[in-house]
Amino acid sequence: MNKETVIRIIDNPRNGDNRESQGVVNILCLDITKYNFGLQFTLCCSFVFIFYLAYGCFLELIFAEPEVAPVSLYITFIQFLITMALSKVESTIRSPIKRKVPLRTYAILAALTLGTMSLSNLALSYLNYPTQLIFKSCKLIPVMIGSIIILGKRYGFLDYVAAIIMCIGLTMFTLADSKTSPNFNFIGVIVISLALLCDAIIGNVQEKAMKQFQATNNEVVFYSYAIASIYLLVITGVSGILKDGFIYCSKDPITMYSNIFLLSSCGYMGLQAVLTLVRISGATVAVTVTTMRKALSIVISFLLFSKPFVFQYIWSGVLVVLAIYLNHYSKKNPKYVPKPITKIWQYIQTFYQSEYRYLKLKSKMYTDTV
Question: Is the entire prediction scored with pTM above 0.85?
Answer without folding.
Answer: no
